Amino acid sequence: MLRLPPLFRRSYHLHTTYERLLGTQVEVQITARGRAQAQAAEGRALAELERLSALFNRFDPESELSRWTRRPEEAVRLSPELNAVLTLAETWRVRTGNAFHAGADALGAVWQEASRSGHPPQAAELDRVVAALRQAPWSQHGDGTATLHTRSPLGLNALAKGFIVDRMVEEAAAQPGVGTVLVNAGGDLRASGPAGVLVAVADPRTRRDDAPALTRVRVRGAALATSGQAHRGYDVGGQHHSHVLDPRTGRPVADVPGVTVLAPDCVTADALATALSVLGPGPGLDLIATLPQTAALIFTADGELRRSATWPADPPF
């Protein structure tokens, strides 16, 4: 979880909160030369939010994503935006050796049932789902069409949320007279402009909003995403498990209760926060070392805080 101070005020500061980004609260902060420029930038950001949410909302039966998932094994022409998110999801699946997998929601359904019944999933059931996840969940054909190869649920929300945050920031920042833009969707955020925003990274082991921060980091012309298990997960037979599931084993992540990632854009930060939770500190930090302009902070189950070599020094208070 992230705690956000107000952005540096210039001539006019606009700060609003909405409840309509794929079920997640979204916060918009804009500084501009005047009220008209700030409101125009906000309007551009919200128009993009509405347009893209209509494509990616899996809970809306008429969204493009929902309609596509009802047509498995059929080549369907998709919007450039949905094709872009599918390409990103498949790129990260391959690059992380299945540690990031959009089909992992099929495992989530198994663990939700375990939470309801109070009994852990059978190993054979997990093995069946994991075997299916070794295959690519869709094919893209280079002509704007794609074919879905599974009837299991797809978890595109994280990447779609980051994609929408990125587009909202880019739209607002393109408005003349705008200095700084921040869009924060449930702790996944992107900030543009010279001032940036100082973000407190909370302890992933506690649900308390007033708990001392682990560290602080300034996000300037970049994005930040956090994956943690304090506020979400599966309670099975009196034991709490992380909501992050390893697509390679079918089991909840146990060694990494929290990851925070800095990246050039929010969609990259989102993918890496999930992947590093699954990969763990060693392989995760090795992956970060291969990616320019990225940094990671990994909190381990034994209380160690592991930083990538690129993680910035703590800013002064």
Task: Give me the secondary-structure topology.
Blueprint: E1 2-3, E2 12-21, E3 24-32, H1 35-56, H2 64-69, E4 76-77, H3 80-95, H4 105-117, H5 123-133, E5 138-140, E6 145-148, H6 157-173, E7 178-185, E8 188-192, E9 197-202, E10 213-219, E11 222-228, E12 233-236, E13 239-242, E14 258-263, H7 266-279, H8 281-289, E15 295-299, E16 305-307
Antiparallel strand pairs: 1-9, 2-3, 3-7, 4-6, 5-6, 7-8, 8-11, 9-10, 11-14, 12-13, 14-15, 15-16
Helix pairs in contact: 1-6, 6-7, 7-8
Summarize the structure.
By secondary structure, the protein is α+β, with helices and mostly antiparallel strands. The protein has 8 helices and 16 strands.
Overview of this structure, please?
34% of the residues lie in helices and 27% in strands. The chain is an alpha+beta fold and 317 residues long. The radius of gyration is 20 Å and the shape is globular. The chain has helices at 35-56, 64-69, 80-95, 105-117, 123-133, 157-173, 266-279, 281-289, and strands at 2-3, 12-21, 24-32, 76-77, 138-140, 145-148, 178-185, 188-192, 197-202, 213-219, 222-228, 233-236, 239-242, 258-263, 295-299, 305-307.
Q: Let me know the number of strands.
A: 16
Rg calc:
20 Å
* Strands ordered across the widest β-sheet: 2-3-7-8-11-14-15-16
Spans of at least 5 consecutive residues with low confidence: 1-10
Overall morphology? globular
